[in-house]
Design brief:
The complex is a heterodimer of chains A (about 325) and B (about 400).
Chain A: H1 5-12, E1 14-18, H2 22-29, H3 38-52, H4 61-78, E2 89-93, E3 96-103, E4 106-113, E5 116-120, H5 130-135, E6 177-184, H6 196-219, E7 225-237, E8 241-251, E9 262-271, E10 275-277, E11 281-283, E12 286-289, E13 292-294, H7 298-309
Parallel strand pairs in A: 1-9, 6-7
Antiparallel strand pairs in A: 2-5, 3-4, 5-6, 7-8, 8-9, 10-13, 11-12
Helix pairs in contact in A: 1-6, 2-7, 3-4
Chain B: H1 2-6, H2 11-18, E1 25-28, H3 37-45, E2 47-51, H4 108-125, H5 136-139, H6 141-156, H7 161-164, E3 167-170, E4 174-184, E5 194-203, E6 207-211, E7 242-243, E8 261-268, H8 275-280, H9 286-309, E9 322-329, E10 333-341, E11 358-362, E12 366-367, E13 371-373, E14 376-378, H10 382-393
Parallel strand pairs in B: 1-5, 2-11, 8-9
Antiparallel strand pairs in B: 1-7, 3-6, 4-5, 6-8, 9-10, 10-11, 10-12, 13-14
Helix pairs in contact in B: 3-9, 4-6
């Protein structure tokens, strides 16, 4: 899938809100979580991933992107010493997701490897108030006339309509609520990586797919407005730039263009650091750029942690 | 040469000069099918092997509450046993009850459920493709170990502040290069000269935890707990083969990393060293040898590299012992090792007057569970879990 976010919005009948939802913002702003002390550790995590992890001079993106992710997740996981209910989470790698829905008589399907999925035992509570959800009724979805909205989508003869939370987990799986999806764009060659816009669209489609599959599992296959909206988060990165997304599925009635819409909050293009210098740059015998991480932005890590803690604290 | 290394300004410079000269050297593989490899490895590294676990100070042992929950597979709604404890996060550790009130008792039930959850997730719940040929260890035991350790360490970080400042490495590289013994060069333009025998270990533990502070010593530096085996044959009889390549010393991260001491390593035995293979070839006694040689070699390389990162080397011997731990497993059977490095002086000149020996404590391999069936883990062994928890809770006395 290579659509832009606007196209993804039309396909998933979603209204876009810039920035992160108030619930997550609340976690960010509250000092009780001790986010300040973690800054130092986050900086070490970045240094480790970008500078120290290898016996060679500099690790390549294929290596440092997953290592950075693991380090950040390790710091987040260590919070379960303070919030023990955080341990009711499970990371699942390489799970497949499949969800089907109909949009204005076009049958759409999301399939594929959805990166790394973090499941939790308890669902994330809805982040938008009832009024906001009702207000989406008035929102008109952008159309792309004369371009058909399904441009750039692969048309495939699907013989089986699959709806499965990742087809991944058997019955009775205790960690049944998808919490956050992580996408790591770690290909070394730039053309193999998704551009930020495409990555955001991919995040939206997969978050939608997971939420839809979960909603159908909980409430059945009939299209309707959900009493309890399903919230799934998404974080995508290429090792330096982070995209944060919170998706709330309000309705499974996706055939028509009116009515309640789904909501997505996107905080895009957040840099975690400016530059990682492995070897000091020396011009004419003078060190112009010392080795190390420059331009570290702790806020980006705080958002990462806030999304991790969301739903539990 | 020695003067230059002594006088080197930074540790990186020392390491660079130490390994500058490249000559053919024996590559020692920690995971090997060679018969009685652990005896050979002990003689290469001047290590004494003491069976069992080292005596622990009373303070480090957390009282374990009588497990309230029945040892069942962690599935299903866990009874609300608030366990302060040890979250043995087996991959599927499902219900890790938040330790409420931080009672000094480790809740075995919680840890157990955590472990079972992890186990069940990787082996039962998550639908995976078939394992790659001869790479069974990547399919289930590998992810199980990762999940178990990461969740367990996270949960235990509330009790062990050292873990809270730790760094977790997945699939790191550990290398060490040293000289031991002497031989005469057989052929080539340097024929007839007496050369030190060079060894290099290149290890890839599955998981390792590095911490910013050193683990406390187990026994004093000069203790003598046994004999180091002396083997008269050449190392190539083991079999060991020579190769010439870069002499690397690496603990998993560069010298600049603040987490420069090792805490625990986790090794996964590959499919070709599985127990059934040894039983089929009627070599049952070699099963334990595999675990022991892995423990000794890997831990020697790790502790010695840590010591070199602090500036010690074979001419400047360590002034304090370096201690690290390791768990070697094939997914079901776990063996625990603790290593204390007392000396780095292993080459021919320095070993003559050196009474110190390195010490390795180790257990035999024990199963963590019997079988996973229908979403239930049967025959869960609490002792193994407890040992793992004790390992993770190990920390310097002042913390």
């Amino acid at each position: 899938l290579f659509p832009g976010v606007r196209q993804a919005q039309w396909l998933t009948k979603t209204k876009l809100v810039e920035g992160l939802p108030p619930a997550v913002q609340g976690i960010l702003d509250s000092p009780a979580h001790g986010l300040q002390e973690l800054e130092e550790r986050a900086k070490h995590a970045v240094s480790h991933a970008r500078l120290w992890d290898t016996a060679e001079v500099a690790p390549r993106r294929e290596q440092y992107c997953p290592v950075l992710f693991e380090n950040l997740i390790h710091i987040c996981r260590l919070m379960s010493g303070r919030y023990p209910s955080l341990s009711k989470r499970m990371l699942a790698r390489d799970c497949r997701i499949a969800a089907t829905w109909e949009r204005e008589s076009i049958l759409l399907q999301v399939r594929g490897l959805s990166g790394i999925l973090m499941n939790s035992m308890t669902p994330i509570p809805p982040v938008a108030s009832k009024e906001e959800i009702l207000a989406t009724k008035e929102h008109v979805l952008e159309t792309f006339y004369p371009i058909a909205p399904t441009i750039d989508l692969q048309e495939v003869n699907v013989y089986k309509e699959l709806n499965d939370t990742g087809q991944c987990f058997g019955d009775g799986y205790p960690y049944s609520h998808p919490h956050t999806l992580f996408f790591l764009e770690s290909a070394n060659v730039r053309t193999n990586r998704f551009r930020p816009e495409q990555l955001r669209a991919k995040m939206l489609m997969f978050a939608f797919g997971n939420a839809l599959a979960k909603a159908k599992e909980l409430h059945g296959n009939d299209p309707k407005v959900l009493e309890q909206p399903v919230v799934v988060q998404s974080i995508g990165t290429d090792g330096q730039l982070f995209q944060f997304m919170v998706f709330q599925l309000n309705t499974t009635d996706l055939v028509s263009n009116d009515g309640i819409k789904n909501l997505v909050w996107i905080d895009s293009d957040q840099n975690l650091y400016e530059k990682a210098q492995c070897v000091p740059e020396v011009k004419k015998g003078v060190v112009t750029k010392p080795a190390g991480i420059s331009g570290f932005q702790p806020d980006t890590f705080k958002k990462f942690l806030a999304l991790y803690l969301h739903g539990t604290v | 040469f020695n003067q230059r290394v002594h006088a080197a300004a930074t540790v990186e410079e020392k390491l660079r000069l130490y390994g500058k000269l490249q000559r053919p050297k024996y590559t020692v593989y920690p995971q090997t099918f060679a018969l009685n490899a652990d005896r050979w490895y002990r003689s290469f590294t001047k290590t004494v092997f003491v069976p069992g676990m080292p005596p622990r100070s009373a303070a480090a042992k957390p009282p374990v509450a009588a497990a309230g929950t029945t040892p069942e597979a962690a599935r299903g709604p866990e009874p609300g046993a608030e366990a302060p404890g040890a979250a043995e996060a087996p991959e599927v550790a499902k219900t890790v009850e938040p330790a409420a009130g931080a009672a000094p008792y480790l809740d075995m039930g919680e840890l157990r459920s955590l472990a079972c959850d992890a186990l069940l997730q990787e082996s039962f719940y998550q639908k995976k493709k078939r394992p790659f040929l001869y790479r069974d260890q990547d399919h289930t035991p590998g992810p199980f170990l990762t999940q178990l350790v990461s969740t367990l360490a996270a949960l235990l970080s509330g009790r062990n502040p050292l873990l809270a400042a730790s760094s977790l490495d997945l699939n790191p590289e550990v290398n060490f290069y040293w000289h031991h013994g002497e031989e005469t060069v057989v052929h080539g333009h340097r024929k007839g000269r007496v050369d030190p025998v060079r060894f290099q270990i290149d290890d890839n533990p599955h998981l390792q935890i590095r911490v910013p502070k050193q683990l406390p010593e187990v026994v004093p530096l000069e203790s003598d707990l046994g004999e180091v085996p002396v083997i008269d044959h050449k190392p190539s009889k083991l079999p060991l083969f020579k190769k010439q390549y870069e002499n690397k010393v690496f603990i998993g991260s560069k010298v600049a990393d603040p987490c420069c001491y090792g805490h625990t390593q986790f090794h996964l035995l590959p499919d070709k060293l599985k127990r059934e293979r040894f039983i089929k070839e009627r070599l049952e006694d070699q099963i334990e040898v595999v675990y022991r040689s892995n423990g000794i070699a890997s831990l020697f390389a790790w502790t010695a590299a840590q010591a070199m990162y602090q500036g010690f080397w074979s001419e400047a011997d360590v002034t304090r012992p370096f201690v690290s731990q390791a768990v070697v497993t094939d997914g079901k059977y776990f063996a625990f090792f603790c290593y204390q490095l007392n000396t780095l002086a292993l080459n021919a000149e320095t070993i003559k007057n050196n009474p110190r020996k390195n010490i390795c404590w180790g257990t035999d391999s024990k199963p963590l569970y019997d079988i996973v069936e229908d979403g239930n883990v049967k025959g869960f062994n609490d002792d193994v879990l407890l040992q793992l928890v004790r390992f993770l809770l190990n920390r310097p006395k002042e913390l």
